[in-house]
């Protein structure tokens, strides 16, 4: 992959806000033929947000899909039909319902490939599990309160 700059650094055009963050980003693109039709992003830590902007190399309208995975489980996908040289779009997702992203796969139906830019992500919050001693202390509270109430009701003669 090579880094290019839009418009004077080897990549012709990009999209415009609000469809993209900027019309002149740094892009990553493969210039050799045939270009890869799939790029897999494997994350070293789970993410709660992942996104990027993509645009096809050719002038035609091309289908591009970004799939989000938690391990081997597909948790969501985004598909756009984009026109090359003026059609970059944002592909981004927020993990919900306890899911995280450990991998994302970007694919296109066109063998000439695509360029990408403006990557964004957020690390998933670590799930904290209470220690057994903490759970025991939490359980002792209601038990102690119940014992105190029981002592007040029982009268010793």
TrEMBL record:
It comes from the Bacteria. Residues 128-148 form the Ice-binding protein C-terminal domain. Pfam families: PEP-CTERM. Residues 1-26 are annotated as: Disordered. This is Ice-binding protein C-terminal domain-containing protein.
């Amino acid at each position: 992959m090579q880094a290019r700059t839009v418009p004077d650094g080897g990549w012709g055009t990009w999209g415009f806000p609000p469809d993209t963050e900027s019309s002149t980003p740094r892009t990553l693109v493969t210039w050799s033929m045939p270009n890869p039709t799939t790029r897999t992003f494997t994350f070293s830590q789970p993410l709660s947000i992942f996104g990027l902007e993509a645009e096809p190399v050719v002038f035609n309208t091309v289908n591009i899909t970004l799939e989000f995975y938690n391990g081997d489980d597909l948790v969501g996908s985004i598909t756009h039909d984009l026109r090359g040289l003026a059609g970059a779009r944002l592909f981004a997702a927020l993990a919900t319902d306890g899911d995280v992203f450990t991998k994302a796969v970007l694919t296109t139906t066109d063998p000439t490939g695509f360029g990408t830019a403006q990557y964004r992500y957020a690390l998933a919050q670590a799930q904290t599990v209470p220690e057994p001693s903490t759970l025991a202390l939490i359980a002792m509270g209601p038990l102690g309160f119940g014992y105190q109430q029981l002592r007040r009701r029982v009268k010793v003669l």
